[in-house]
Amino acid sequence: MMENMFLEEERFYENRCTYAQQLFLMMQRSVQKKMIEASIQKGLKAICFTDHYDKDDDQWGEGEQIFDVDEYFTTMTRLREQYRDQIEVRIGVELGLRPHLAEYYGRFVPKYPFDMVIGSVHSVHGVDPASEKLFEGKTDAQVYRMTF
Question: At what angle do helices 29-41 and 2-9 cross, to 10 degrees?
């Protein structure tokens, strides 16, 4: 089941790189290895792992959606070295952007040697659009105007 989730999240770009979102805290290293090996078999030259880092986000009732970045780099660096002759393993993060976190992320990002940093909006007026609560009783146009 977990593997299917990751296959749905993979995005392939011109046979050069796959961008794969992961939930680092929920994954075992074996899943990451399978994703790398599948990318090698597809002839890709690079894969970039990212994970959501949503500071101050408890919309799903599980506390902040953050992970141990030091452990993440230790694990991913080992995999980068293990596969370095076969594929480039890149290490990234997807930040859940909110205006009050600008200073926090301004200090957080330079602390780590990320290969890719994605800034995403996972909250509109305090609600994650993926939860569909934002759309309850509203048209798409109304939600669009609220968002922008």
Answer: 50
